[in-house]
Amino acid sequence: MSLLTGIVERVPAAYYSDERQAILETAREFAMREVLPVANRLDPVQGEIPMELRQKMAELGYFGILIPQEYGGLGLGIFEYVLVTEELARAWMSVASIIARGNGIGDGFSEDKRREMLPRMARGEWLGAFALSEPGAGSDVASIRCRAELAGDEWVVNGQKMWCTFADGADFIILVARATPYDPENRHAGIAQFLIEKERGKFPPGIEGTAMRKIGYHGWKTWELSFDNFRIPKENILIHSARSGSSEGFKRTAMGLSVARIHTAARSVGLARGALEDSVAYAQTRVQFGRPIGDFQAIRFKLACMATEIEAARALTYAAADDFDRGRRADVQASMAKLFASEMTEKVTSEGIQIHGGAGYTSEYPLERYWRDARLTRIFEGTSEIQQRIISDAFLPRPKG
Ligand SMILES: Cc1cc2nc3c(=O)[nH]c(=O)nc-3n(C[C@H](O)[C@H](O)[C@H](O)COP(=O)(O)OP(=O)(O)OC[C@H]3O[C@@H](n4cnc5c(N)ncnc54)[C@H](O)[C@@H]3O)c2cc1C
Predict the structure, then answer these.
(1) Catalytic position from the list 52, 235, 381, 385
(2) Burial grade of 56 (CB within 10 A; 0-12, 13-18, 19 or more)
(3) Ligand 1 touching residue 217 (CB < 6 A)
(4) Which pLDDT score is estimated for 2?
(5) Beta-carbon neighbour count of residue 327 at 10 Å?
């Protein structure tokens, strides 16, 4: 239960509907009852998100929030996706992240594939991983080198991918690779997405995975992948313009990142809220100098600033989500929400540790998890610097080169 009744418990009037309020309350109750205890138990031992928990999330429809009803999803908007994401992230960011492995992934599927697979995705039975980043291509997506070459009825893939979260547990991987040779004069051309169907828990022959050691975002593994003459059926190319030399594949990939950024902003808000709620509780029970530390103005004002920054980040996130739902492309707003919320969450979770004193620096309290996970939000789905670049490009001429 939130300690902040009146500040965060109601969907703001501008976006309010009874349905949204019910979605928020259900997600909050679920996250606190079902997710938080699991996170507190499994994060310290780097355990995986249990199937049983995934099943409960599937029953609530969380893997299919954005999937149209005709394909078995809830057919809701990004706003509702954000409401659920914030609540799940308040308990465990990895659980808020795994819902993105159903919702919206696989944008380029054929109609047959949509009919076959989206209902399974909505039920959480068919979840994906996304392989975009490479050892030499992180922020600079247009520099990817992983290559898919058409040989008869198959694409033959060779190259490296980095940071592919959930590659092992996924039922499919969306691979971003070049369908035409790298051209330094036209770097954005020829980038395509491919569907790799695989058995859950394994890598197929031709793909070797090495788990990466990371400081947080536990609950699932993140992988470096090596493709060695790995074969994909010809029809599994998802973005067909690749052969024409156009940059459609790059554009579609970049567009997908805007929704991921709004999702990340919501994850950031959820993490920060965890830090705030726990800190409010701690400030009332921890006694120093004969009184609860929450009596000290230094602590009260920290909490006030934390709450205010969370509200500001949430407002940006809601506004960007609402714009997308109304069919207005709001890529810059998505970047602003992601930038502000992720910078905010690192600060707020760190303040949460400060309020907890030494206790905050132990794994007896979840503050250190919030902070480790919050740190990642400034890096993935485009770093803060890349968001700043996107935002400034909106009003300044782009520098040459
Ligand atoms: C735990 C984890 C999980 C991830 N999961 C996935 C996943 O599932 N799938 C996937 O494809 N990727 C994933 N990623 C990759 C992630 O998206 C990248 O790490 C991120 O895009 C940054 O790329 P990079 O690490 O190569 O950093 P780099 O691009 O090398 O950046 C290094 C530094 O240089 C700065 N920089 C770079 N270019 C510029 C510029 N033009 N202007 C100013 N500053 C610049 C960056 O902001 C950063 O500070 C994951 C990463 C992590 C850490």
Answers:
(1) 381
(2) middle
(3) yes
(4) 45
(5) 6
Residue 367 in contact with residue 275, Cβ under 8 Å? yes
Q: Decide if 231 contacts 154 (C-beta within 8 A).
A: yes
- What SS3 class is residue 283? helix
Task: Note the pLDDT tens digit of each residue in 71-119.
Answer: 999 999 999 999 999 999 999 999 999 999 988 776 778 889 899 999 9
What per-residue confidence (pLDDT) applies to 399?
Answer: 82
Contact 30, 87 (CB under 8 A): yes
Three-state SS at 8? coil
pTM over 0.85, yes/no: yes
Assess contact for 190 and 245: CB atoms under 8 A.
Answer: yes
Do 196 and 209 touch, CB atoms closer than 8 A? no
**What b/e sequence results for 275-304 when a residue is b if at least 16 CB atoms lie within 10 Å of its CB, and e otherwise?**
bbbbbbebbeebeeeeeebbeeeebeebbe
What is residue 1's predicted lDDT score, i.e. its pLDDT? Answer: 36
Torsion of CA 236, 238, 239, 242, to 10 degrees: -20
Provide the β-strand partners of residue 196. Answer: 173
In terms of residues, how long is the chain? 401
Q: With a cut of 70, which residues of the chain have pLDDT below it?
A: 1-8, 106, 240-245, 401
For position 3, what pLDDT does the model report?
A: 47
Give the count of beta carbons closer than 10 Å to the beta carbon of residue 137: 18
73 CA → ligand 1 middle, Å: 31
Nearest partner of 237 among 131, 109, 145, judged by Cα: 109
Confirm whether 381 is a catalytic residue.
Answer: yes
